[in-house]
Amino acid sequence: MSELPEKIPLIILDSSESPALFVTQHTQYMVEPPSFPSFEWDFLVIDTPKGEELILGFDFLNHFNSSIEWRQGLIIRTIMILQNLSLMTFLPPNHVQLCLIDLCGACNLLRIKAGDEHLTAFRTKYGSFEYLVMPFGLNNAPTSFQKLVNDIFQDLLDVFVVVYLDEIMVFSKSEEKHVTHVSIAITRHRANNLLAKASKSPFHVTSVEYLGYVVSSEGLKMDQEKFQQILNWPHPRNLKALQSFLGFANFYRHFIKNYAKKISSLTSFLKRDSCFPLNEEALDQFHQLKEAFTTAPILSHFNPSLPTIVETNASNYALGAVLSHISESGKHPIAFKSRKRVPEELNYEIHHKELLGIVWALKCWCK
């Protein structure tokens, strides 16, 4: 580690650099004055929905930090697991009991290896500090914390608990069972010194906002706040604005039929040499995509007792597929998939294009 820089300039953030944050962390034994400060990192104090968080610039340190081999699930994978839980599908609407437990501290609950504390030293106008616990900004922080909570709740996962980092959902098919399940989860929290934020942890509800979605026994739907954010989005005037919009929209792409086809003209402007403003075709797609979000359906949970169908569509530039249930009330979508066709697929004959869509869709959902 001798190649680390000796000193990085202090960043003064005025009101954002909150002395209360350092006092709190110091009294909670999260930071302490450095034992032998040989280098110190720059930092930011940012406001998040969970409160103020101290983010240090560990880019250089992360270059030397060995990565942990662990497959941390994507948010959408966690949601898909939730959709496939049979508990969600065999009960009438508003019958499932849900609870969301929002943990305090997250990565700060992990102790740094003894002797490595000085590697996290940082300097403020209130003095120099080093972390005793894992700070936000280290590349292994999310993976290490996910491993911790997975180990703690290992025997409960997908039985009546779903975990994604610091957000833990407990689900039950009756209020009586829910009391028992929540009690077991809370006992597990206490045994492992995990603290929950009561103001962010709703108990005994039939629907809950989880990882950007609203989850209930009916299915999944978009968070209303995110929904309004898309509707109020101004049309992109430069590359950065377009990347921001598509990045946001991509998070909810599985609510939109033939999403890849609907953004084909927009994605053509992602090239570095593209000229703005957007042309008429791209602007039309932008407004059509926003309109598609206004009519986005509730995605049903998977129910193996119902007939399941897969419908595919292959256009000149994209593939699309819909996974649905057939019930007495009609056809209900479970998920939408789409992607652009790669160059070697563009010259396929019509029947090959259609077969490509079928094979691709089955590979997506028959794992």
Can you walk through the features of this model?
- Helix content is 31%, strand content 21%.
- The protein is α+β, with helices and mostly antiparallel strands and 367 residues long.
- The protein has 3 domains: 14-70 and 108-138, HIV Type 1 Reverse Transcriptase, Chain A, domain 1 (Roll); 75-107 and 142-221, Alpha-Beta Plaits, CATH 3.30.70; 224-365, Ubiquitin-like (UB roll) (Roll), CATH 3.10.20.370.
- The strands form 5 sheets. The protein has a 3-stranded antiparallel beta sheet, with helices on one face. Strands 4-8-7 form a 3-stranded antiparallel beta sheet, with helices on both faces. Strands 9-10-11 form a 3-stranded antiparallel beta sheet.
- It is globular.
- It comes from Austropuccinia psidii MF-1.
- This is Reverse transcriptase domain-containing protein.
- Residues 279-366 form the Reverse transcriptase/retrotransposon-derived protein RNase H-like domain.
- Residues 99-214 form the Reverse transcriptase domain.
